[in-house]
Amino acid sequence: MVNMKKSEKKHIFDNPRNVSWVIRGLFIGCALLVIADLFVHRHVSHSLEELFGFYAFYGFFACVVLVLIAKEMRKFLMRDENYYDDLDD
Amino acid sequence: MMIWTIDLPPFMPFYLAALLSVFLRGWLRAIVMLAVPVLGGLQLTGLEIGEYNIFALMGFEFSPFRVDRLSILFGYLFHIAAFIGILYSLHVRDTVQQVAALLYAGSALGAVFAGDLITLFVFWEMLAVSSVFLILARNTEAARRASIRYLVFQVLSGVLLLGGALLYFGSTGTLAFNYIGLDSPAGYFILAAFGIKSAFPFVHNWLTDAYPEATPTGTVFLSAFTTKVAVYALARGFPGVEVLVYIGAAMTCFPIFFAVIENNLRRVLAYSMINQIGFMVVGIGIGTELALNGAVAHAFNDVIFKGLLMMSMGAVLHMTGRINGSDLGSLYKSMPWTTAFCMVGAASISAFPLFSGFVSKSMVMSAVLQEDLGLIWLMMLFASAGVFHHAGIKIPYFAFFGHDPGYRPGEAPVNMVLAMGIGAVLCLFIGCYPVFLYDLLPFAVDYTAYDITHVLAQLQILFFSAAAFAWLQLSGIYPPELHSTNLDVDWLYRRFAPNCIKRLGVVVKRYDDAFRNLFISRFNRTLYFLEQQNGSHGVLASGWPIGSMVLWVAILLATCLLLFFI
Lengths: 89, 566
Known about the structure:
The structure holds 2 protein chains of 2 kinds.
Chain A: H1 16-39, H2 54-77, E1 78-79
Chain B: H1 11-23, H2 26-45, E1 50-52, E2 55-57, E3 60-62, E4 65-67, H3 69-88, H4 95-112, H5 117-136, H6 141-172, H7 185-197, H8 205-210, H9 218-224, H10 226-237, H11 243-261, H12 265-286, H13 289-320, H14 336-349, H15 356-370, H16 374-400, H17 414-432, H18 435-438, H19 452-474, E5 485-486, H20 490-534, H21 546-565
Antiparallel strand pairs in B: 1-4, 2-3
């Protein structure tokens, strides 16, 4: 079912330029969304929401913290793949 | 179809089809299996609110078919999920799996339409017993072991429910399944039963343990029914119970850490499932009309988008035989449809505007803010960013993009692609036209998801989460996918307890040996003493000359004579 093809057609992300376009588009989108915060009057229900770019900052911050903590968790939670297999010896 | 009257409980057609499927083969079986959810779903559209087929047995009143706005919503949902799941698994040539799937779907329907606690209990157990075959059918040692652990938890939940139901009957005199609350001990038993099935923290590992071990198609069914029946039961029995807010908030947060470091992509989805159930549990705990609407709407959407994600990962597993993020990548080249549908599911679970998750999750978030639960709100916001991170980006990225290990398996079978397509269309349809779902909700909906505040806030969170992922990947901080086992609470009963028992065994054996040895040596010494005394060479057994006998008799007689004269 699984076969390897050495010489096949180029796919869209085989070209590193396309990848960098995606990333550039993402960062441009981020910038536009923060700028939109200046013009859009939002009705807020929590005082934190009044901060400029609160959601943007929180989203970024949350993900970085999430990954850093998860990385630390690996140090004491990660075991060998067959950790549970060798129990009934 | 003559017997298919309007008041036939919805589980019956599924059970009958399961029976028929034992004897049917090939396309005939396929037609029966596909027809059941379609006809059953149509039957629901003609139903009036009320209770059908009430009967009394041994002094108890049973109500196997109660129709109200809450139960019928889940009724529709489970018919849709069953249809998608059956279509997805149509290529499977395994009678056990197909019969089990039909029984399982039927049991879920039986449970949500149960008007009394005993009927609920019966289907609660049937859910466990029928679904375990979907895990066993994987036919691996790991699956066999996981299925036993799964069954232990499910049966424990059932036992708690039965005990709670009897206590409830004892204190209230009724078995009717309505609001239960935590006013009596019965409430705690029943909440514990519901809690196990909805994967509350510390009793959540049956889910992350067993679901990834099931067959590619089995996990699609599993992800749809068991936990959502539990969410339904919580929404009916414990709306507005405050502790659920905190339990739910914990459920939204802790699984995402495990999801980030987990390698098995179906296990990532299992953790993400707990996270999504957390949003529902918070909504139920708040208990306002908006919150409850949000909770059940999110359950509805979750079944479809989580099913879609599970289907896409099932397709990857089916086609490549692999499911670890570390082994996969760049499958968009050979599985473009699966990739596209997976990304629709990913966008839906991440609550992108125009996708289904957005229109239901924002209801719960708004309800949290209305109740002024600031900390809970921040936790859920954190979880929202996290779910995008691990389910929205990680799943598609590591399976379909990222590094290229060179697999070119080709697109999944056409029935799988069709099933994923239906799921994807539903995600988009509900996302773009939420009124369709809002009209089905238990309470009248006075809520618009699509205002500029919600949309902008959500887009900012999502774009910046994506930016964080991109930055962490590019800078090499993001933890690589590794072949590994991550310890969770299940370590307690998979490693710690067995080890304790082993060690305890060693200690017990030591004392046991010492005690036995002591006893045996004492016993032997006693035997030796008796041998000395009474053995063939013992004092009492040695030969005595007749002469000395006579002497002793003479002494005896002389003593008697002497005594006589005194």
